[in-house]
Amino acid sequence: MILSAILLTAILPWQEPAAPTLDSLATKAETLEAAAVLRLADNQADFLPAEAFSELSARLSAATGAPLLLYGRLAAFGDDPSGVESLVQLLDSTVAPEQGRASDWAFAALTTLRLPAFQGLEQPTSALALWLSDQVASDDAQLWAEAQFTLYRLGASTARRSALRNLRGMLTAVEEDLRQASVLALGRCGVPLGADELELLEQLATGFSSHAVLAQALLDDAARQERNRGKIEALQQLYQQGSQPGEQAEGLEVLDEVLERVQLMHMEGSRFTAEELAGAAADGMLRRLDPHSTFFTGDEFGEFMFDMTQAYGGIGAYVNTVDNVFTIIRPIYSGPAYEVGMLSGDKVLEVDGWSTAEQPNDEVIKRLKGEPGTVVKLLTFRNGWTEPKPVEIERARITLPVLQTEMLPGRILYMELLDFSEDVAQRISDTIMNELDNGEVRGVVLDLRNNPGGYLRESVNICDVFLPRGKVVVTTKSRLGADRTYRTRLPALVPESVPLSVLINEYSASASEIVSGALSIHGRAVTVGEQSFGKGSVQNIFPLDSHPDEPFEDGNKNGQHDDWEEYTDVNGNGEYDYGPAIKLTIAYYYLPDGSSIHTLRDHDGRVVQAGGVMPDREIEFPQLDFVTARELNRLLAEDPFRPYAQEVYDQNKDLAIELAINDLHQLDRYPGFEAFYEGLDTRLEKQEVRRWVRRALRTIVSDARGKVFPGNGFFGDYVEDPQLREAIKVILSSSDLDYASLPEYAELLARAD
């Protein structure tokens, strides 16, 4: 019986199954749910005859519902994806109840639009952007966020920036579901996430929903990228260049003998361990190479990581010891210390009952920091109080502000960039776009003075804001591997008609020099100030495998140990211990014209090759002469300026704000100034005293309004800053406004210039 069946089967003629047609597939699709339609298209696309794909464009324009999704999906397998923008109709369409929820069809349409075949096409991008422009995000948060993610993935540069801006704009929305949907979509875009965005993901990850799973996956990916960025490749290359197992590099036997003799014969040899002496030898070796390569002991590396932390749990304040008392120099106005009323100049006498008297700053700061959400109790004192007062502050995740901005007279946007930490280019873009939306921007001043640098990628991204696509920003040359050239990737966000000036000085280094040099060489900006520092080298941190960090539970997924996180105390000393690490110079930076930023020195510190960026307009910041500086030191020790400034503020707040913004160097605008000056019994010029009174007044006004004046001291204050005034003149010279025609500048021009 079985044999008969086999024989019967064998002699039946074989017939090729009929090829599907678009009509037959469409008929079948009308009975299916959205997910099944996607599977149908994917499974049958290979069997469609070639001529069927030529019909898709016409069918897409007329189809609705399930056939529309089917045709759009099939178009991804053809040579002509035109008409696929019709899929956007499914975002608003309704379907029969038996075919599932309307949202399923909308999400299926968005999933299809994200296929590689449609990326970079203008028609679907424009159609989706137009649909989004009519939507209220809170009406359907999930669909809105998914559509923004799809807009980003479609690939057009303008659309990508728009999608990121829209998603980030909803991270502070009142609706929780909108915040959650936006941060998840932002994370899926694959862009670097800031501290606030990571915090939102951490909150989501604590639940048990599908959102929690996705949030945790995005956090894990962000942590993995941060830990591995640039390390694996460099380490592998370094190992490939090293000696083979069992070999000993020439000269190491000298170190062995020196170490042995020191421990045996040196009078202090018994006070140091072999590990300490080996670390000293390693440090000397690296410092012989260049000033920026160094060896970190475990303790030193721990301090280095502490200083590098951009976001942490704390009270939110800049602090220092002043006259032997731990003092709030200035609260961070978005932080919890300011929210509970702490102001500049407040003294911190105790932290959780522990006296700060004669304690090092690092030890006090360590006690102020802690897990976000925990409470720290301070005993504080303020000038004018009769006795100290207790203050309770709930620690929060603190993100140090790296960009301070202000619109100057003449609609000139001043932007002070403190360092090149992650996402600063996006912040600059957002700030400029907001100001352009609010009105005309006649020019931009980018202040990079005293900026030590940071992430290379951010320097390239900042140039992307001002330069057209394809412009060389910087080239890195190393001993390992090929040279790498970084270019702008997107059209300029700021039109070339908006003039740009960049401020630099002798403390502008690394990424600051890349940005200022590239923008100047391409003719996009006029640099003003003093020659920059000349640090055009790339350093990477390499932990030593021979002495790893102690294991810990990375609760906030930031890739480093925080004081509140559990750890394994391997050596039993009751403290978390980092392993030693080395910082190595592995490459040099070269500007678009081929010049090197880096200043090379010989072993004696003499310059053998000058580096840095020479400004287009060289303007020195005035320095105090010795007599003036000595007299100021005497007065600042007594600090008569702040009490008088406080009196001016208390008597007339509106006047105080006007003076803080611009006093036009007019002494008679300060109430009782002559009597105050006479009471100082000083040989300082009256204008010098006015400068320091106004500096104290700007601190008081900042505390009162909860917004810092950009700049540091007299830097960034156009009333006192000749370099900033020159940058303003450069910008106004290319517009229809004259520096002397604006009243805010005219008086300063007459008095100071």
Word description of this protein:
The protein has 753 residues and is of the alpha+beta class. The protein folds into four domains: 22-228, no CATH class; 311-399, PDZ domain (Pdz3 Domain, Roll), CATH 2.30.42.10; 403-539 and 586-618, 2-enoyl-CoA Hydratase, Chain A, domain 1, CATH 3.90.226; 626-752, no CATH class. The protein is 44% helix and 14% strand. Helix 7 runs parallel beside helix 9. The protein is globular and about 100 Å long. The termini are far apart.
Helix content: 40-55%
Rounded radius of gyration (Å): 32 Å
How far apart the termini lie comes to 112 Å
Q: What is the helix tally?
A: 29
Mean pLDDT across residues: 83
The main β sheet shows up as: 6 strands, mixed
Instruction: Kindly estimate the percentage of residues that lie in beta strands according to DSSP.
Output: 5-15%
Supply database-style keywords.
753 residues; alpha+beta; 2-enoyl-CoA Hydratase, Chain A, domain 1; 6-stranded mixed sheet; 29 helices; 21 strands; 44% helix; disordered N terminus
